[in-house]
Amino acid sequence: MTHGRAAQLISGATEKRWTVIAYLVVSTLAIAIAVPAALGSSPARVGLNFSLSADHSNAGRLVGMVDRTDIYVFATVPGATEVRFWVDRPGSGTPDHTAVAEHVDGAPVTTEFDMLGATQGTANPWHLAGLSAGDHQVIALAQFSNGFSISTTTKFKVSGSAATGTGDQPPLSPTPSPSASSSAPPSPPPSSTPTPTPSTASPTPTPTPSPSPTTNTDLCASNELPPPLTGYPDAETTGVPASAQLKKIDGDLRTTQNGQVISNVEITGRLYIDHDNVTVKCSRVWGGTTNTHSNFRMWLSTLGNPQGVSEGSALKYSNYTLRRVEILGTIDGLKAEGNVDVRDTWIHDLFYTTDSAQTSGMTHNDSVQATKGSHMVFQHNRFDTWSFAKGQVAGTNTGKSPYGDGSGYQTSAFMLVAGFGNISDVVIADNIIRGRAAKYVFALDKNGYTTTGVRIVNNTMGVENRDYPQWFGVNSATTVSGNVAVK
After folding, report:
1. If DSSP codes are grouped into helix, strand and coil, which group holds residue 14?
2. Which residues of the chain register pLDDT less than 50?
3. What ranges do the domains of the chain cover?
4. 450: closest CA among 480, 425, 481?
5. For the whole model, what pTM was predicted?
6. Most buried pick, 30, 166, 167, 342, via CB within 10 A?
7. Residue 465 phi/psi, 5° resolution?
8. How far is CA 302 from the centre of its chain?
9. What is the DSSP letter of 144?
């Protein structure tokens, strides 16, 4: 077996065959996730790909239509020790398939992990005929030797009709239809029943195909919030789309009217929301955003700088809604002071730099910081609480354990300390929270003000935080339940 292949398989493949078309509809396909920099010289991307050939030639992302019974599915994950696959099941418990890396001199050398493994060096195919018609998904979870893990989710649909392939692969010929002579039913026996009068009823109309999934182009054109993500947010599903054409605006930008829509711009300074009902979409703001009005919405945009920027926060203060926003390279991620709704958003790699206001002389970085306010929801987000310092770039310390060289720490994912008013009704649910924070959530009273009604439920938590297994520093008014650890 070559080093580019997984060396082991645990599988329950189905052998049943028939012609099928797979409409491989991307939810979070070939999801780009930064591989821990400790595992390589620079961040890489993780992809879930397929080929029509066992040697992975002419491979493409799982997108478009495939009119072949067999395909070869593999995850490209440099540095991983194994990849676990679940088909049509949550990514937990015993996987359906596991591909384990081959090692040389104790180090993993596999880069392409075949979902169904290989037999005598040849990848095993996935028989799509073994799937029923309808919606399906594959979850791939990559594990690394330092305990870090990352995952990707692929949604697709299996149909029984034939069509020419599209997507990253070259067009594929449809399966030939059988000849009329072979498919015609046998003639009925003679009958004395009179020939019926031909029907005058209208023919049954052909069903209208279901619309394709909403693309980034659609989301950038629409003024409606994006639909919820199926998989967790990451580099592929958050931030300004790579395909977006941006108009550059040097310096700061201030809104000019209520209801203003700002789209497809790159702002080198800071954005100031000075009006109500403003929408920002598919844009990059290097210096962050300040909102002082009501009903501010943002999606598919990037705030901050991967080289680091000495901004106090990427977005402040209240009355905002975020979907699929990427935040990085600022000192704090979000300042939240009430009426905040953040979902499908990725906050990572905050900037650790000097801060004269701190006793240590260095910043105390928090992904979300609140000192007052109520009615705040943080659901189905990803918080990677590793920081980087001047002279480094985002991703430098990602994946490091809680012990070692002392770099890459931040204070928390959530710092909810009622220093300037009461805090209440805060939901932190169904997030992935990982990294080198001291504790992941603080919820405390201060200065005579109280923090109440904070619910921390059903989150997936890392084991890299400094005080693990203590994830939380919270008061007795905080509800904590259903949170699970992931290594």
Report:
1. coil
2. 1-45, 67-68, 161-202, 204, 209-213
3. 8-159, 218-485
4. 425
5. 0.60
6. 342
7. -70, 155
8. 14
9. -
